[in-house]
């Protein structure tokens, strides 16, 4: 089972605090949001030291042998592969090399969803048709989370927040968002309130900015998780009489 997906589900669903002072004191602190950092062989140790919850590498930029070495460098920090232009056989080799999860492009072979032993996230653009967004939650697909690949922005726009809220309302899955720029604590809080469970930053991000982002995430309050997905519709039960409902006549006083 994917360690990263376990973290993601725990965060997305939320958890009740244990009763009593001692129970609360012994409860491990879970982050208010997950930090996933893009990396290379050269930056793996720095990513681990920054406190990132997971690492992510492009399948185009790494070979199976190099991935094994990278997994060892990451230690207990889960490592994922962004699948781009790869076959199921190639991805299976990555999974056998210690890869913890895969981020699949929406045009990736559907057979990859059947891979065992790795978590599976689906990467989508904000402009994805609403019907396809709904299908992510409606169909019984083995998808563990959704990653919105944001466009390049120098700040978090109102449009970006609305897009995140829209996905949360339509899909009953944990939600991740790529960050293309350095953001402020207030912007990060806005993303959290919009329902974002984790942020993905590129491999070009400096170690200093990763450490600062980790600190901002740790300073976020533990927000109450909003309802995800569309509410189920409960149909009224039939009385079983098969006839029309008779109206009771009012008694005259």
What structural category arises from helix and sheet content?
A: alpha/beta
CATH level-1 class = Alpha Beta
CATH names the topology as TIM Barrel
On the 0 to 100 scale, the average pLDDT is 82
- Report the portion of residues in β strands: 15-25%
Tally of distinct domains: 1
Q: Which overall shape is indicated by the principal axes computed on the Cα atoms?
A: globular
Give me the CATH architecture, please: Alpha-Beta Barrel
DSSP E strands, number: 8
**Poorly predicted ranges:** 15-28, 242-253
The H-and-E topology, N to C, reads as: HHEHEHEHEEHEHEHEH
- What is the CATH H-level superfamily? Aldolase class I
Radius of gyration: 22 Å
Count of helical regions: 9
């Amino acid at each position: 089972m994917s360690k990263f997906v376990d973290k993601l589900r725990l965060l997305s669903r939320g958890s009740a605090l244990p009763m009593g002072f001692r129970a609360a004191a012994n409860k491990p602190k879970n982050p208010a949001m997950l930090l996933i950092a893009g990396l290379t062989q050269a930056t793996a140790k720095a990513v681990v030291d920054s406190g990132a919850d997971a690492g992510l590498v492009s399948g185009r930029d790494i070979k199976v042998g190099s991935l094994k070495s990278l997994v060892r460098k990451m230690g207990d920090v889960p490592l994922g592969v962004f699948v781009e232009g790869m076959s199921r056989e190639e991805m299976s080799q990555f999974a056998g090399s210690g890869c913890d999860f895969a981020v699949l492009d929406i045009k990736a072979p559907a057979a990859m969803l059947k891979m065992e032993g790795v978590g599976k996230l689906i990467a989508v653009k904000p402009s994805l048709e609403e019907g396809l967004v709904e299908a992510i939650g409606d169909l019984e697909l083995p998808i563990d989370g959704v990653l919105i690949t944001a466009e390049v922005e120098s700040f978090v726009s109102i449009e970006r927040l609305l897009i995140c809220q829209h996905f949360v309302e339509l899909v009953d899955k944990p939600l991740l968002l790529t960050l293309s720029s350095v953001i402020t604590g207030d912007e990060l809080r806005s993303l959290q309130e919009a329902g974002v469970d984790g942020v993905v930053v590129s491999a070009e991000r400096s170690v200093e900015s990763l450490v600062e982002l980790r600190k901002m995430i740790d300073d976020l309050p533990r927000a109450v998780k909003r309802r995800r997905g569309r509410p189920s519709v409960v149909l009224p039960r039939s009385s079983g009489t098969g006839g029309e409902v008779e109206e009771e006549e009012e008694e005259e006083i």
